[in-house]
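Hi R.,

Here are the chain sequences for the assembly we discussed:
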Amino acid sequence: MTIRFRLNTISTLVCLLSVSLWAQASPGDIAKQGLGDDVAPCSSCHGAHGQGNKAAGFPRLAGLGAPYLEAQLNDFASGARENAVMKPIANALSADQRRAMARYYSQLRSEPSQASTGQSENPPETGARLAEHGRWADDIPACVQCHGPAGVGVGEHFPALAGQPAAYLEGQLRAWRNGKRPGGPMGLMASIAAKLDESDIKPVAQYFAAQSPTSAKGGGS
Amino acid sequence: MSSRIPLLTVAVSFAMLAAVIFWVGTRDQSTPTQAPAKTANAAPADRDDTTESATKSEDVAVSGNAASEKSERLGDAAPPATASAAADFAPPARNEIPDDEFGAMVRKGRDIFTDTQTHAGRFVGNDLQCANCHLDEGRRPDSAPLWAAWAMYPAYRGKNKHVNDFAERIQGCFRYSMNGTPPPRGDEVLVALESYAYWLASGAPVAKDLAGRGYPELDAPEQPPSFSRGKQVFADHCALCHGSDGQGQRAADGSLAFPPLWGPRSYNWGAGMHRVNTAAGFIKANMPLGAATLSDQQAWDVAQFIDSQERPQDPRFTGSVSETAKQYHGEHSMYGKTVNGVVLGQDAPPSGTTANVNQK
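And here is the predicted structure of the full complex:
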């Protein structure tokens, strides 16, 4: 009886342990090892800490808002946000797993990807102007009004732009203009992207790529 | 109960075996140990100092003709939707500030204007910046641009019943909209703000009511402004940025991003924006930022909702809400009126709280 009792206790403990391990580690496992044949490890493109890969144009995920990240995974899965690589991955994850992955990355610290200052030391003046002041004559607010000073991000719905790869940012602005990405909450980004000139896109992307995601610079610009 | 134990033991043993196999297979895993990065959303979700959460969603209508109370903006009201295009004056470009002593003061004024907490914090008692209500650094038509205001002073103001010069007008902003302490006359903060306004008005005619001045005056709404409809407009169009509790949001670096619209860190019961008609005009012309698409009725309704929330006391408070309301508040003010069973102004946090120096 004592043996059985002890075995029972140990089994229960191990069982609980394994369940909790499974529940907690799952997003981390998926991030590091992928899932089955369809889900490549997230870290292979987005970095071991979700910091992204600037050289290759893969965005940083670490520290972005969970609702934002979840919405992106859902949009990849549905095809509303067009992306040939992300679509099968997002589709292979259950809705719960997408939510768990979003939470996992939202809780990682933002770390600049390795090439954070190498890409464009001196972003073009036109990019800075649009980012910091907008162009109100065309009803374009300053990017930093919603994305925070230097694009460090605001809350759960306005993701950080600072230090994201320029190619990625440029691609998103074009995707909104071409209807290949949903406009986001209240359609805000689709409406703003539509008002941009073609010549705005590269400079403003370069401006934010050159900013530090951990910038502690306070206040307006 | 004891008869179930063997079965349980078998099941649990099997689970243990599976768990061990699972564990061996994944033992190189490392659970993320990074501390959760706190998001910037500092908006306290549990704030209960507003009246909105109260019991019934009773409509509070503005009585009388909503447009009858003239704001200080003179002359004809341009059609709000297209007003910005109709501005007949353009301020100098940002990069045209001269590189001399005067230009340095203009820059100082601009910095105060856009980051008031940092550059004039000792006079500020809330979490607002000048540029929150005067968009585009005080340049945007229909957002009370400085270039249109500058040459309209000195002017008689009904609010204090005497002729005010521009410096006194700015002092009023600090006292009411910024819920602070007015900088003393001659203080560099005032000089800098005057310099910035003066420079923005370079070439503007004196004493001419330029198109785009102040906020547009909306026609009286078809239906009386409604708190409950406004609440819905707020949830649909405003809460994304200002928070569902209206307390705004901070950026990831801790700086102010979206301003609080009510509560102890917002404008007080003496500010122009606390008047429903003023707020409605501002909202219609400017909100949501860059996508000002609300109907007149929606603007009135959401202004009614926002301005029916508790906020810092009117600095002219006489000791009695009803007396203060009678003396200083017109029909477009909700101060002293009962909303959802609460008399607004009765539980107002103190005004002029600059003693709590803003920590960034």
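The longest strand of chain B covers residues 155-157. Chain B is about 35% helix and 5% strand.

Let me know if anything looks off.

Best,
T.
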